[in-house]
Give the backbone structure.
Amino acid sequence: MQSRLLLIDDDLELCELLKEFLTSEGFAVEMVHDGEAAVARASAEAYALLVLDVMLPGLNGFEVLRRVRAARRTPVLMLTARGDDVDRIVGLELGADDYLPKPFNPRELVARIRAILRRVEPREAPPPERVVVADVALDHGTRTVRRGEEPIELTTVEFDLLAMLLKSAGRIVPREDLVKGVLGREHSPLDRSIDMHISNLRRKLGHEIAGIERIKSVRGVGYIYAAPGG
């Protein structure tokens, strides 16, 4: 069965080229070219994934993402201007699953789309597994996270990233392992996606546990989740 994608971009020529390429790769592609139409379509209908440009007439891509997220958890790949880190950070903070800077190779777009779809596709449910490290409890069975008694809302990527870090609490997890395990692609030195997701986790969970840095960056290697008393 074809995965149904919604392509949201006001560049009509680019949309037609991408639609042709994505269709040849086995996707069913629909297009809209402004923010209001994007919100209406994406909120009302079920898509496997949205490809969403930041720069749109009317509502920009961030507002589209915010409104769609209020109605659905459809995965979103954002298209951003090359070199504009602010757009990438804001998109990820609002719940985008990944981003791709323009201009890009269509094959890279397909690779990113497939990596996201692999992460979110239904799998045979594993036995419920609950991981508790200090004040944080993560439940794989229900895909929920609590800090003490407080539920913490995480995106799919943030949940999977936290699961990897908690599983190895007290030990360094190499950046390459996080990128491959969470984003489903090989690590590139110029790709700062994991750093942005880590920043979101720190903000949502709190920067410290009992006076210890919760998620510590180990320069040039990766990240380590604190294990107080461990």
User: Anything to note?
Assistant: The two ends are 48 Å apart (CA to CA). The chain has a mean pLDDT of 88.
